Amino acid sequence: MTTARAAVFLDRDGTINADTHYVRRPEDVVLLPGAAAAIARLNAARLPVIVVSNQSGIGRGMFTLRDYERVRARLGALLAAEGAHVDATYICPHAPGAPGCECRKPGTKLFQQAARDHGIALDRSWYVGDRWRDVAPAAALGGHGILVPGPDTSPDDVEQARATMTVAPTLGAAVDEILADVPLPTPPPVN
Known about the structure:
Elements: E1 8-10, H1 35-44, E2 49-54, H2 56-59, H3 65-81, E3 88-92, H4 109-118, E4 126-129, H5 132-141, E5 144-147, H6 155-164, E6 166-167, H7 171-181
Parallel strand pairs: 1-2, 1-4, 2-3, 4-5, 5-6
Helix pairs in contact: 1-7
């Protein structure tokens, strides 16, 4: 019997990399200061890092799934160059209001899929992003939400997060909060 483990769900644009409003090209990917180091700390603590991202530019016809994959690969390469990695990525490719879409955040479908795929306890996990829609799934799933406001975060999002969750100034500060709650991994026994 395996026990479900906690994970850290991160938004991508505005949380890990600069949000240039529809990141379409690999050369547009710029890591936010300290983001790779923060993710590397989660990796060292053996917490799965899972990106869940709304990518409505695909549904709006602004870029293709292939373009998205090239951007994802570039992000992965930039993180790897700084000793960090993302364990899995889930995206909603639909435009807002697309008929039949259940995966767009703040919906919980992608988080539930990740939980099934990776043995994640959603109620023990953290949900981190720069918009209310990124952290709202924490309330729906019984987890811990941490808003990291950026230039595009509305004052209403900040107010709402302050009332029910945590607000951190940077991803690094959010990781401080997470790691304060997580026991450090036990090193393997030495024979």
